[in-house]
Specification:
heterodimer; A: six-stranded mixed beta sheet; three-stranded antiparallel beta sheet; B: 387 residues; Rossmann fold; 15 helices; 42% helix
Chain lengths: 105, 387
């Protein structure tokens, strides 16, 4: 069977590879019925970029932001801690503080 | 009336199984209780407490046994005690009887010893089972169906295919009026902002944020550092999880998309259908949490795994799905549903619909889960931490 990756939500700019992928291999994005070329080797369960992501743009998985790119990421790049910043504080903690402050509307 | 399912009518609500339960009130009565259950195939609850407990824990033990007896799938109860223990077996009997169930109590000291208690107990359980077998399923409102959801024994597929498929099935259950409860509040920090947005009201959103903040504070007090400092863990990162939001979102995906109705405490039953969170505050692993659902009146559980775990419950059937097609093929006697088909090209909606249909088959007794077939009838005493 060909190498596959799963795009969980239509709005996601990353997909999760379902088998180990080597540099140059084509990967089928199951939901889009579309293939892309892996630019580097990626382990099972790790993320592959399926859209260009500029430095500073949000990484979208499950249809929601999960982190921010710290460099330009091309389609087929591996997306992980080396090129993504954890912005939980900004996404989550700031939201909950504001939620408390704003009160019931 | 909306959608109905075929189930066993009770004084209040219904059961999807007609289990007869033997409860040991104290560790001294465990062996006799186990022997009665072994001779009859009744379900049994034993534990290592019931006496010599302090003022805080003793009522917790009693409450835990009481809610087990009240659980909706329990048709009748035999309580086996020693006679001089802290747990008052006759009071336990009286309170479970309020649910309209047949309950009998035997004291080993009063019956003349273990042999006499065992013989009498076996006869009582056989009579209860004969009564249970006579009861027929009747149409019951799906709005009274209550289901627990959880994951454990996770791998890289748990969030990717397992929990998202479960979320699809949960959406269908909730839209038919069922109550669905999740727990695992330790895994919520990192997705409070999403949960608050999913809340049915501002107050419910605040309730969820409060629970998460309390959880963060407890974690900090216990470990001396924040959840963020060590999460995602090195193992998570090895598996491909990059950020805490990503990790936490993978956990809550199992709840689907419907509005969250509120946070329940241990032993509290959901007052109406919809999505709920239980904050049971009991330390322990997944087995303890499974129990919390049963004690909150859940009829069954839907449980996502990656690698596969066997644990079930004395009080309810547990349907186990895996998101990993290889695990499903490797562990046929442990796993009920293969959500790994999503990796192989099956649309998520189709997998969710199939899981929903399987859950209804289990609820109506047309299918036994692997936990039932394997006799995984675990039970764990709940002792909440001081908060």
């Amino acid at each position: 069977m060909e190498k596959r990756a799963i795009q969980i939500d239509k709005g996601d700019n990353v997909a999760v590879v379902a088998q180990p992928v080597d540099t140059g291999e084509t990967v089928l994005i199951v939901e889009k019925a579309q293939t892309i070329k892996a630019l580097e080797s990626i382990r099972t369960g790790h993320k592959i970029a399926i859209a260009p992501i500029a430095n500073g743009e949000l990484i979208i998985k499950y249809g929601i932001p999960i982190g921010r790119a710290t460099q330009d990421i091309a389609v087929g790049n591996w997306v992980h801690v080396h090129n993504v910043e954890d912005i939980t504080e900004e996404l989550c903690n700031r939201y909950t503080k504001e939620y408390r402050q704003r009160g019931k509307q | 009336m909306g959608k109905t399912i075929m189930a066993y009518k009770r004084k209040k609500g219904f059961g999807i199984r007609n289990y007869v339960l033997v409860i040991s009130t104290v560790h001294c009565a465990n062996t006799v209780a186990q022997q009665i259950a072994a001779a009859t195939d009744a379900h049994v609850i034993t534990h290592d407490v019931g006496c010599g407990e302090g003022k805080t824990r003793q009522p917790q033990t009693f409450q835990c046994l009481l809610n087990a007896g009240k659980a909706p799938n329990i048709f009748a109860v035999l309580i086996v005690g020693l006679g001089c223990e802290q747990v008052n077996g006759r009071e336990l009997k009286r309170l479970i009887e309020e649910e309209g169930k047949q309950v009998e109590f035997l004291s080993i000291q009063e019956e003349g010893g273990p042999q006499q208690t065992k013989e009498k107990g076996v006869a009582i359980v056989k009579q209860m089972m004969a009564e249970a077998a006579k009861q027929e399923r009747v149409p019951c409102p799906m709005e009274e169906l209550s289901i627990g959801i959880q994951c454990g024994g996770s791998d890289w597929t748990t969030a990717l295919t397992g929990n998202v498929t479960l979320g699809e099935a949960v959406d269908r259950l909730v839209s038919q009026g069922a109550a669905v409860m999740m727990s695992e509040v330790g895994g919520l920090p990192g997705s409070e902002h999403l949960l608050a947005q999913q809340a049915a009201s501002y107050e419910v959103g605040l309730q969820i944020i409060d629970v998460c903040d309390a959880n963060r504070a407890r974690y900090l007090a216990r470990n001396g550092h924040t959840i963020e400092e060590t999460n995602p863990t090195p193992g998570n990162k090895e598996g491909g999880i990059t950020t805490l939001v990503e990790k936490s979102t993978g956990n809550i995906k199992k709840a689907g998309h419907n509005p969250l109705q509120g946070v329940l405490e241990l032993y509290q039953r959901p007052p109406h259908g919809g999505l709920w969170i239980i904050d049971h505050k009991c330390p322990g692993l997944e087995s303890v949490t499974i129990n919390a659902f049963a004690l909150a009146g859940a009829h069954m559980m839907l449980f996502t795994t990656g690698r596969g775990t066997p644990v079930g419950s004395a009080l309810l059937p547990l349907l186990r799905l895996t998101g990993n097609p290889e695990s499903f093929r490797a562990l046929p006697s442990m796993l009920d549903f293969n959500a790994g088909v999503v990796i192989e090209g099956t649309p998520l909606e189709k997998a969710g619909e199939d899981l929903y249909n399987m859950a209804l088959e289990v609820a109506e007794g047309k299918r036994l889960t692997k936990t039932e077939i394997n006799g995984n009838r675990e039970f764990f005493m709940m002792h909440p931490e001081e908060s």
